[in-house]
């Protein structure tokens, strides 16, 4: 069942991309995202420093002239206006250069890269708090809103989010959210191994845990650990945790 779900998800992604763009593909931004992630670990900067000598700076990679401007922060690189990422072609224009540098970094620093990825994976497993993304988004969205919706710029800047007033609300809600999430995860894990539960529920628990762990690896290891990556999925754990609790508290039939 888990493998079937994965196969269907991959197929639907390809079909939707084909319907929207006329080209069937699963993902075209992966190398760019991985480049930004590896820049956080300093791998990109090391590769560029070793290969971008003064005599061949413009020939080896289009990123060479900008190697001093690549931040160790993926979100700053990808979303902040004015970074070299946007100046040299954004997602399409940096894809092949990103791919080349990522592959070199993995080949030259395989153990360090693996350790860095595993640390991100481990951090992602415990990042389930609400609130990330409720802080002001002006640092990277203001120029987009101004260009596309100039008449909405002032009302948008006056919104609760841009004033930072949503953060305390999210922090308060976490006092309720976190205990529920931890209990749901624990019950789902227990449900995988409990012989008292129906086979279908045990299979659902296994599927949910596989999805949770896979999400943590793909996001935490390859993109960077953030609470938002788990929060969008972890609520579904209630769909297995609550039934497991129901079966555990109901009296056994004699």
Features:
254 residues; mainly alpha; 2 domains; 69% helix; 0% strand; globular
Describe what this molecule looks like in 3D.
- The chain is mainly α.
- The chain has two domains: 9-111, no CATH class; 166-249, no CATH class.
- It is built from 15 helices and no strands.
- It has helices at residues 2-21, 30-40, 43-51, 57-60, 74-79, 84-87, 90-93, 95-108, 110-125, 138-148, 153-157, 167-193, 199-222, 227-234, 238-249.
- Helix 3 (43-51) packs across helix 8 (95-108).
- The radius of gyration is 22 Å and the shape is globular.
- It starts with a helix and ends in a 5-residue tail after the last helix.
How are the secondary structure elements laid out?
Layout: H1 2-21, H2 30-40, H3 43-51, H4 57-60, H5 74-79, H6 84-87, H7 90-93, H8 95-108, H9 110-125, H10 138-148, H11 153-157, H12 167-193, H13 199-222, H14 227-234, H15 238-249
Helix pairs in contact: 2-8, 3-8, 8-9, 9-13, 12-13, 12-15, 13-14, 13-15
